[in-house]
Design brief:
This protein is α/β, with parallel strands linked by helices. The protein has a domain of 83 residues: Response regulator (Rossmann fold, 3-Layer(aba) Sandwich), CATH 3.40.50.2300. 43% of the residues lie in helices and 20% in strands. The chain is built from five helices and five strands; from the N terminus they run βαβαβαβαβα. Strand 1, helix 1 and strand 2 form a beta-alpha-beta unit.
């Protein structure tokens, strides 16, 4: 777990810090936080994280689903989607990418941890 590289993509700084802190308390290394889809794509290409925790609704250049599509077109990285707005349209778009998980906010870090254990074999 300690050597696991997680990329967290969340445009709400407070939420990002809370998730990061709780994951670190559980022994996970959230080594990067991206606040935009563009930055998430850049980091994923450069660093090849073991898993990505991605908010779907980003207030930036592209949403999390678009960023995940770009990442998955070049890398095979498991993605856990987070969303505060659970519409059928968003759910259908997200599930086309076959995410490792789809979690509706408010975030329960225990759920993230359970999915990470499945993904990473911890």
């Amino acid at each position: 777990m300690g050597h696991t590289k997680l990329l967290l993509v969340e445009d709400n700084y407070i939420v990002a810090m809370e998730i990061q802190q709780e994951l670190q308390e559980r022994g996970y290394n959230t080594y990067k936080i991206a606040t935009t889809g563009k930055k998430a794509v850049e980091i994923a290409k450069q660093k090849s994280p073991d898993a990505i925790i991605m908010d779907i609704l980003l207030s930036s250049d592209m949403d999390g689903i678009e960023a995940a599509q770009k990442i998955l077109s070049e890398e095979n990285i498991p993605i856990i989607f987070l969303t505060g707005y659970d519409s059928e349209n968003i759910r259908q778009r997200a599930h086309k990418l076959e995410p490792a998980a789809y979690i509706v906010k408010p975030v329960d870090v225990k759920k993230i941890e359970n999915h990470l254990k499945k993904i990473l074999g911890d």
